[in-house]
Predict the structure.
Amino acid sequence: MRSRRDRGLTGYVLRRLLQGVGVLWAAYTIAFVVLYLLPSDPVRIMLAGSGTEFANPDPAAVAALEAQYGFDKPVIVQYVTSLGRALTGDLGTSIQRSDEVTSMLAAALGHTAVLGGVAFGLALVGGLLLAIPAAFTRRPSVRQTLLGVPSVAVSVPTFWTGLLLTQVVSFQLGWVDVFDQHSVGALLLPAVTLAIPTSAYIAQVLSKSLLSTLREPYTEVIRSHGASEARIVLVSALRNASLPLLTMIGVIVGNLLAGSVVVEAVFARDGIGNMTFQAVAAQDIPVVMGVVLLAAAIFVVISIAVDLVYPLLDPRVMIREGDTPPAAAPIEVAADVTAAEPEVVRP
Amino acid sequence: MTAVLTGPGYAGSRLRTGALDVVRRPGLVLALVVLVVVISWAFVPGLFAHQDPITGVPADRLQGPSAAHLFGTDHLGRDTFSRVVHGASLTLRATLLAVLVGLAAGGLLGLVAGFVGGRLDAVVMRVVDVMLAIPGLLLSLAVVTALGFGTLQVAIAVGVSSVAAFARVMRAETLRVRAQTFVEAAHSVGSRRFYVLAAHVLPNASGPVLALSALEFGSAILSISSLSFLGFGAQPPAPEWGALVSDGRDYLGTAWWLTTFPGLTVALVVLAANRLARHLEGTRE
């Protein structure tokens, strides 16, 4: 019985990994179409970047560069050769800095991971602080106010909140030196900036599922057993309500990565975001391509991890043999956990 | 009955319910006021701001907010309020273009995928799923890298990043409408496929897509001003909102008004657009 289930699981993981590779290939193709087929002239950009007058480039230099990067070959040949190189982990060289794209990404990833990790933690705390009181309170006015905060938070541009925070905390109060990259304060300001829209997103997802969980019959059953309201909200309801959030982690991390472009540019911090900003400014196509692929890879890895962890946290969901991998959409967790037999609820 | 309904009593009660709505939903009314004001800025900026947005008065440089300069002045003595008012047209036009690009391309993809079905549908939706896996801002940045810099390029880039969302909603609606009896009836009386698509499916499927457009309007303003802030959009001295915030960065410690007011304008307009979108979504249900 058990071995059969394990075999099903192995098959599922293999299928899921294969599908992940498919998504990465598709992301590569989309990025290739956008970056190489739209009307742009990478060779001209390279010559402009190296200081040569780009108004009138030397035809021989253009031809030499085209041959070096393979731009003189048909598009399909370029696509196949660059895809082949990408499969071996070679994403090409930066036009602007003549460094390997993969080593640039690896060097920058750590900085952004720290920033994104702190921002994620702050966003989680912020989201919980909004969603839990909103579920607790019996006053509609308080609930409306708390639930209204996220819609304000997502409307405020991050570049502006970053500058406002710098202005107030750094220039007027003098608490933090934003230019000292290694101080805790200089990490906290961009992290708070990055966390604001994310916490709004978390609060929205969490309060929606929390309120619907509190309307479930099993909440009433727990209450009738004498559980306090705090126990119901904090232990029983929150545990079930946080499951939809789990399926959103891929999207949240992707948004943190994208948000780091603006935030790292505002605070002049090293990382993937600042690297992306500079690459776009210099129209450094291989680097931009690498960042897009990195984002897609992170999304794929997280969604596979979430799918594998999910059944452990929610025993109602089982991975069966022949299951098709689910989409990354939020899952309605509506089943009654007090039911005697746990059923497979995932379609 | 008709006479009674059109009489003064009926009009009075309508006015009353109208007033009640305002009391009950002050947020929505405020949102509409903000949007109307900003749209008027775009059409007749001269009516709201009398100072020149491009050439300043050097004697008035870096002055704080006052009655003469509501939002203060910048390092060239240009009135910031005037620049915000004149920037409305640029920002809103770019936003409108971005939403239209997303709506047209995504709507068409979703409509065709949902209507034709089969293998085409499967392929289109796979591509849409992959596009949704790439964060919108990164996709926009990739398009900007290829197209180059400028307001038009940024607007197209932001539009491209919303294609997947539009395609997904349009496909779901097309599938819903296609399964209904009147579409089946149209097929059974021998209507051409294209006629059924244009005359029956499209009008009945467009509701949620339009609600999404309102929502995308808000996020497009945010994306466009972010890209302009980074310097990829409108080039100086054009007064685009995100670029205005960026211009004020060098004076953070000394002239707080230069970043505060243009950013506040962006936040208020996005908030208003999102509030309207929520209302449109709510009335449909």
DSSP finds 13 helices and no strands in chain B. Chain B has one domain: 21-45+72-284. Chain B touches chain A through 49 residues (CB under 8 Å). Residues 80-116 of chain B form the longest helix (37 residues).
